[in-house]
Amino acid sequence: MSLPTTRVDMNTTVDPNRSAGALLGLAGGNARGRPVGGLPVQAINEAHDRLTEMVGGGVHHQLPDTLTDDTDLACCIARSLVARGEFAPTMPDPRSRQGSTIHTV
């Protein structure tokens, strides 16, 4: 299925298939690395030797297919970009019903 190309401004077009692929790659990479996030290499090697499949665990003992907060936020920002055509650091946080804002550093 091919999605229509979206024009963001006069000089930029976005291929939604490439955007979707980027989000899928981000989600897969984050889910695979989530159980060992923040651990030193030696601890990862001792616990897993080599990660060749999705595993559970991590700080919160989550299931192997648990999404990360990074993936969740990236998807929220992507939804906002599609809806608004822009990103502003003070735009309403799309995850919030209270209308808090997304702050960038």
UniProtKB/TrEMBL annotation:
Keywords: Magnesium, Metal-binding. Its cofactor is Mg(2+). InterPro entries: Ribosyl_crysJ1, Ribosyl_crysJ1_sf. Binds 2 magnesium ions per subunit. Mg(2+) binds at residues 68-70. Pfam families: ADP_ribosyl_GH. GO terms for molecular function: metal ion binding. This is ADP-ribosylglycohydrolase family protein. It comes from Halonotius pteroides.
